[in-house]
Amino acid sequence: MATVDDLKFQEFDDAANLLAANPDATTISIDEPVEIPKNQHGRLQEPGREEDDELLGTNDSDKTELLAGQKKSAPFWTFEYYQTFFDVDTYQVLDRIKGSVFPVPGKNFVRLYIRSNPDLYGPFWICATLVFTIAVSGNLSNFFIHLGKPTYHYVPEFRKVSIAATTIYAYAWLVPLALWGFLMWRNSKVMNIVSYSFLEIVCVYGYSLFIYIPTAILWIIPQKVVRWVLVMFSLCLSGSVLVMTFWPAVRDDNRRIALATVGTVVLLHALLAVGCLAYFFDAPELDFPAPIIPAHNGTTVITKS
Amino acid sequence: MPAASAQLAQAVESDPSPCRASSGGTPRRGGRQSLLPAARQPTPKRCRRRRQLPSAGAQGSAGAEPQGGFPGLADVSISEDIPVEGEITVPVGSRSPDEDYSTLDEPVRDTIMRDLKAVGKKFVHVMYPKKSSALLRDWDLWGPLVLCVSLALMLQGGSADSKDDGGPQFAEVFVIIWFGAVVITLNSKLLGGTISFFQSLCVLGYCVLPLTVAMLVCRLVLLAGSGTVSFVIRLIVVVAMFGWSTLASTAFLADSQPPNRKALVVYPIFLFYFVISWMILTFTPQ
């Protein structure tokens, strides 16, 4: 039975003094990297997997794994739980954006930049910016294309904003959900060394959409060639970020399934870009004048070719 | 007589005292008098404790002698010939002097004018943004409502061949402004801001004022004509007012954010006013 003295508040000594008093006591220190192997499934580190470590950024991801486990402890109905998803500073957001625009070959975006601190600020506001950028640029581009025509009456086309919002937010949230579900399912069948949480996948997708913002602004230029070059360029950049993120996750799987997964990721990304270009931006006029075809009742009909 | 004393005790206990302690605990909006005095404070009255003596002859007035002797009750503090008086209002926090007036007795015009003056004062604060806490401390949502409704009304009548291609409808403008303000407020709170929810809504709503003025100017310019010159004038006016709105709201809101996240909070505000400016600029009449 505890005495009264045991129940009183006690001051604890410095850790060093306590340890000197009892040298055999177990201690936990979270300053040094802990000696837990990164791959929980018990595989040994082979020399052929060194590029994996580089990709995974094993060096200090262990520490961040441990620290991350202490973070999200608030229950999900409190406000503090959601504050943990916005625990980023300005320079971190800018770094992540930079990492998505200039992919370093061989470096995994998630391990390098996210580092177990996925945020929802980036995905949400990049998607919002992209929605309005596409709507505004599309409107401007149509205005400039049809400017000289006498029958043209400018319309703001505000409905397209809601269509753009639905498309982009659906892409940025539903595709990661499907991909995460798929990876979880494959994970249960094949022991993958890498598994991402849902928020990390949302993060990657959200930040990879950033390159489309300047692309959408440049799509105002009414030249078909320019637009398609821009599509290819931005697709390469953001597609490579996605590929380098998800290739280690499916590499150990059946070869065909791995290729199909990565191929689907890239294909959906391309579909988004091309679809936005086709729907929001009218086709630019060609430079040479259209041929005049006399109609059967004598009036001339001008057709666009 | 024990029965009488028991009755007296019961009467004193169950005295429906008119002098309730008005403790200021009722929540008041923004800390000032409400326009609709739903949460009106009871008037602090001077309390006069009357004892209802059980006998028919004695009334509850000062100077009434107790019947017989009640040695137990005579020890109780109240002396018979001095009425107990006092104010029981408990002032909570810092109150401006006009808080103590009851709004029930003043003319309706005064009540309305007081609120209108508060709203007008906030408009002035927005047009000349200095570091004042008046906008934040006494928040109200009347100004934002008036601005939002007038902006949405002025954006009506945009041209469209079909409904799908026209400008934003009334409901769209309304939803964009209020939903956008709520999302920005949530964003700043999630990033660790110390400002309260309604204070932030108040500031964001009031800072729509320059853009409403721009809308008014645009409509007037469009009455004169809709050529290139009018477009250039409208562009300049809208850009200037957009900058004013963003700077005004940043001046009020940026201080409550942690210093290394200021840009993360300011950018959505910029985007919000940019979208409203775009709606204003692209307004073309029928």
Structure description:
The complex is a heterodimer of chains A (305) and B (286). Chain A is mostly helical. Chain A has a domain at 80-99 and 107-282. Chain A is 59% helix and 2% strand. Chain A contains 13 helices and two strands. Chain A has helices spanning 4-7, 15-21, 50-56, 58-69, 79-83, 90-101, 109-114, 121-145, 159-189, 198-208, 212-218, 224-250, 255-280; strands spanning 292-294, 300-302. Chain A has a two-stranded antiparallel sheet with strand order 1-2. In chain A, strand 1 and strand 2 (300-302) form a beta hairpin. In chain A, helix 8 packs parallel to helix 10. Chain A starts with a helix and ends with a strand. With 286 residues, chain B is mainly α. The longest helix of chain B is centred in the C-terminal third of the chain and has 26 residues, at 228-253. Chain B has ten helices and no strands. Helix content of chain B is 51%, strand content 0%. Residues 11-34, 36-45 and 52-66 of chain B have low confidence and may be disordered. The radius of gyration of chain B is 30 Å and the shape is elongated. Chain B starts with a helix and ends in a 5-residue tail after the last helix. Chains A and B meet through helix 5, helix 6 and helix 8 of A and helix 6 and helix 10 of B.
One letter per element, helices H and strands E, the order of chain A comes to: HHHHHHHHHHHHHEE
| Head-to-tail CA distance between termini of chain A | 95 Å
Average pLDDT for all residues of chain A:
76
Mean of residue pLDDT values of chain B: 74
Largest sheet of chain B: none
User: Helix content range of the residues of chain B, please?
Assistant: 40-55%
- The helix/strand series of chain B, from N terminus to C terminus, equals HHHHHHHHHH
Contiguous uncertain segments of 5+ residues of chain A = 31-61
Number of strands of chain B: 0
In angstroms, what is the radius of gyration of chain B? 30 Å
Number of H- or I-type helical stretches of chain A: 13
Q: Most extensive chain contact? A: A-B, 24 and 30 residues
Instruction: List the total number of helices of chain B.
Output: 10
Total strand segments of chain A: 2
Question: How much strand content do the residues of chain B show?
Answer: under 5%
GO molecular function (chain A): small GTPase binding
Keywords (chain A): Membrane, Transmembrane, Transmembrane helix
Transmembrane segments (chain A): 120-141, 161-185, 197-222, 228-250, 257-281
GO cellular component, one term (chain A): Golgi membrane
